[in-house]
Amino acid sequence: MFGLGADATGNSVQGNYIGTDLNGTTDVGNLRSGVLISDAASNTIGGTLTGTGNLISGNDHHGIYLLGTGSTLNLVQGNLIGTDLDGALDLGNTLSGVLVNGAVGNTVGGTDVGAGNVISGNDQFGVYLLGTEATANLVQGNLIGTDLNGTADLGNLRSGVLINAAANNTVGGTDVGAGNVISGNDQHGVYLLGAGATGNLIQMNAIGTDIHGEKDLGNTLNGVLVNGAPQNAVGPGNQISGNDYHGVYILGAGATGNSVQGNLIGVDATFTAALGNSRSGVKVGDAPGNTIGGTTPAASNVISGNDHYGVHLSGIGATGNSVQGNYIGTDPFGTTAIGNLRSGVLIDDGVGNTIGGTLTGAGNVISGNQQQGVHVRGANATGNAIQRNSIFSNAGLGINLGIDRITANDTDDTDVGPNQLQNFPVMAAQMTLSEGDLELNYFVDSSTTSSAYDLTVEFFKSDGSGEGQVYLGSDTYTSTDSTNSITMLDVGGLVSEGDQLVATATDLNGNTSEFSVPIFIGLAPAGTLAALDSNLDGQVTPLDALKIINTLNPSDASGESGTRLIDLANDVNRDSRVTALDALLVINELNESSPEQLLFPTVTLDAVWTEDEKVLADAPMDSVVEDQEVPAFVPAVEAVLSDIDVIIDEMVDGELDDEATVDEFWTQFDDLSLT
Fold first, then answer.
1. Alpha-carbon torsion angle 75, 79, 81, 87, nearest 10
2. d(Cα 267, Cα 243) in Å, to the nearest integer?
C-alpha cells in the first residue's frame, strides 16, 4: 500500500501494479487499501501519458482512499481500478474503487485525453464520496462499471457512484469530455443519499448504456436515485436509459428542490429509438417541490420509450412538483412517436402538482404513449393542474381522472375523486370563425360549493380523437356565469372549418378536468357513429337514445333544452339543442345496423322540428304511420336492459304501454318529467 501523509505534497504514483501479480492477471492484493492519501495535497495517482497509469486491483480495502480535509487538489487519472491489465476482467478491490472521505476539491478522472479511469469490478462502489466535508470534488471522464472499451458490462457490485451526505460535487460536467459512462453496476448508477447530499451536479453522463449510447448496459436498479437529498441537479446532458428500474427516482420527503433538466431518458443517443428503462422514466415518490423539465428549450427532457410511465408522481407526499416543457412519448421534435408503454404521466395520490403551466414554454408534448396521456388516480390526488400541454395520439384518453374511461359530468359537479372529478366544459356547436377569431359559447356545470372559482377554461384544437393537441387560448369562467359564457379566441390560422375543438376546466385549487366532448368548427357530420354515442361508451345502443330522452328535462315550451347549455354528447345532430330528433337519429341507426331486432320504430323527421310539427315519413316499417300503434316498444327495450322498463315507466308516468299510439307517445315525449 502506498501511503501519503500530511506533509506529502506534489508526489506522483505512476506505472505501478498495486494488488496484482506482474502480469496484471492475478489477485495478490494488499491487506488494506491500494493507495492511501491522508490529509495530503496536490498529489497525482497515475497520469494522462502512456505508461503513467496504475493497475490498482485486488486489494482488501479500497483501491484508492483519499482521507481528510487536508487531502485536496489530488488527481486520480488514467488508472485501471478493479480490473485486470486489459481492462476486460473483474479483479476487484474488496471495498470501493475510490473512496473520498471528507476530502475537498479532488479530481477523479478529468477532461484531458487519457485522464479517465476505468473503475469497475469492485465489490462495493465504484466511486464513494462520503461526509459533509467531501465537497467540490470532480468525477469526470471515467468508465464506471464497464470494460476498457465502454462496451461490455463489468459492474461494481453496488452503485457506480455514491454521494453520501456530501455536498456540491460534480459527476460529469458541461465541458467536452467531462461525462462518465456509469453502467452495468449491480445497484444504482448514481446514488445521492441523505440531507447532506445537496448541491450536487450530475451532468453529461451515459447512465445505463454503452459509451456510444446505443446499447443497453443497464444498472441493475435505478439510473439515478435521489434518496432524501435536496437541491441537486440531474442534467443537463445525461442519457439515462436501459436501467432495470427507473431512469431517475426521487424519493422521500427530504428529496425536495431537485431538478431533472435537459436529459434523454429512455431513448438512444440519436433520440430516434427506444432504449427504455424497465420501469418509469422519472418517478417521484412522496417527494415535494421538484422540477422535471422547465420553460426553456435547454431544460426540456425527452422521456420516452420507457416500459412503465414516462413520469410517475406517487404518494400523498408527492406535492408541488412541476413537469414542464418535456417531450413525453416522442422525439425532441414532437414528430416521431417513441411511446412509453403505459401512460405518459401518472399522478397516483399526488397533490398539488403541475403538468404544464401557464408560462410560455411550460407545456409538455405528451403523445404516442400506450395508455393515457395524463392519468390522475387515487382518492388523495387533488389540485393537480394540467394546462397548456400538447396531448395527442395516445392510446387511451388524453386526460383521465380515476377509472380508465371518460368520467361523465354530473349535475353541479358534486361528485368527488381525483382532481375532485372536475366537470369538463360543455360547448355549443354554434361557432363563428372569422378572420382568425373564433366566437364560441360554453357552460361549466360546477357549483361554487363543488369548485373553487374562478375557473380557467382552456381551448384546444383536437387531434381528431378527443385529445387537445394545439393550445388555442383560455377564458375565465366566474361564479356569475351560471348559464352560458361567450368568449372570443384569437386563433390566427391554427384552426379552420371542419376542425374539432376540446376544452378543459381548472378551478382555483388546480383541479383540471378531463377533455370535453369534441365539437366541430362549422357543420359537424350529423348522425355519425361517434356523434350518436351519447353516453360515450364506445358503442351505439338503446341506452344512447334513452340518455337523450332523460336529459330533455328541464325543457322549455318547445320541448328543447332549457336555459343552460346541454351536454353536447346528447346533441347528436349538432344543431346546438337537444330534441326528439336527436333520440330518433339513434333509434334509426339501431334499426339500420340491426334490422332483424327492430328494437324501436324507425321514424324520419324533417330537418327542423318544433312542438307542433312532427312529420313522419318514409318509415321502413309500413305499420308505423301516424295514429297507429308503436309495436312492441316497451318489451323490446326490456330485452336490452333488465331495468329499462322502470326507466320508461318513470319517463312517461306509466301511461305508455304496448297499445300506445304515436300521438300518445309524442305527447309524453313533450312533457318529460324523469329526474
1. 160
2. 11
Query: Average pLDDT of each block of 10 consecutive residues along the chain (675 residues)?
Result: 70 98 96 97 98 98 98 99 98 98 99 98 99 99 99 99 99 98 99 99 99 98 99 99 99 99 98 98 99 99 99 99 99 98 98 98 99 97 99 97 88 95 87 87 92 96 95 94 78 89 98 93 59 62 68 45 49 63 68 48 34 29 31 31 37 40 43 33
Question: Can you tell me the distance from the alpha carbon of 411 to that of 395, in angstroms, rounded to the nearest whole number?
Answer: 29
* Separation of alpha carbons 274 and 288, rounded Å: 29
> Strand 206-207 to strand 181-182: parallel, antiparallel, or no bridges (unpaired)?
parallel
Instruction: Give the containing element (helix H, strand E) for 638.
Output: helix 633-638
Amino acid occupying residue 10: G
How far is CA 324 from its chain centroid? 10
DSSP character at residue 583: H
Compute the CA torsion angle 142, 146, 147, 152 (nearest 10 deg): -140
Q: Is the CB of residue 455 less than 8 Å from the CB of residue 444? A: yes
Please tell me the distance from the alpha carbon of residue 551 to that of residue 204, in angstroms, as a whole number.
59
DSSP 146: B
Q: pTM of the full predicted structure? A: 0.82
The C-alpha cell that represents 343 in the structure block:
401512460
C-alpha triplet 320, 321, 326: angle, nearest 5°: 150
Q: Of the candidates 114, 275, 280, which has an alpha carbon nearest to the alpha carbon of residue 207?
A: 275
Distance CA(126)–CA(116), nearest Å, equals 13
